[in-house]
């Protein structure tokens, strides 16, 4: 007959008066203390609750999808009810936004507050992945808080950009216009591109810019001024940005500018008309315009 070695070590602890389990680790013995009754009953209650929950609510997988539960409750249906209730609550103010001319919304505190609320939600759900949650932009994605607008910062301009997008082939009214690939297409030589990059950086007062060469100004006037303007002020009708301010969409270092001149092109923004309803687009327009940079 074998003897459990732990049983031979069972003894009464002299300090607590409780027997030990016979387990010992490095001189530390485990007391054979029963669990508190409140803990045991609480544990039993949670087990009963869990089993009951599985029958009351959808829980068990079946061949056809899953159990319905005695209550017939579904999270999807609950969300749909909540959304319907929210839409019913917002319906009056949304109707006012829908009926109001867009240039009058910001003059009405009630409509402005509602439009900013609706517009912010639409922005976070649709625009923030590119422009950032705070509309601060990123490399290649414009900052919407400043007053530097590629396609115009008036309400009508912003609304048109949101509705039709930028270089979005599926929308015939999308903003169009792209910078030629001066290097890739052989329009300018590498030296000419280097010269005009230095000229642009100098005129934009970039701290580490080299002294401008007359050749760079000549290349600029013959190739760039037609879109960006003789003074580099840009052209919103063509989507040509201001080159001589301190705002850079892709970066102000020379290699980045050389790359843009060589490869040309431009960013793409989806057309949101048809994806968002007209009222939401109007609210989104007002929200973007009121961030601080709207013209």
Automatic annotation (TrEMBL):
Main location: membrane
Cofactor note: Binds 2 heme C groups per subunit.
InterPro entries, per database record: CcoP_N, CcoP_N_sf, Cyt_c-like_dom, Cyt_c-like_dom_sf, Cyt_C_IC, Cyt_c_oxidase_cbb3_su3, Cytochrome_c_Oxidase_Subunit
Keywords: Cell inner membrane, Cell membrane, Electron transport, Heme, Hydrogen ion transport, Ion transport, Iron, Membrane, Metal-binding, Oxidoreductase, Repeat, Respiratory chain, Transmembrane, Transmembrane helix, Transport
Pfam families, sorted: Cytochrom_C, Cytochrome_CBB3, FixP_N
Family stated for the protein in its record: Belongs to the CcoP / FixP family.
Xref: PANTHER family: CBB3-TYPE CYTOCHROME C OXIDASE SUBUNIT FIXP
UniProt name for this protein: Cbb3-type cytochrome c oxidase subunit
UniProt source species: Methylocystis heyeri
Gene: ccoP
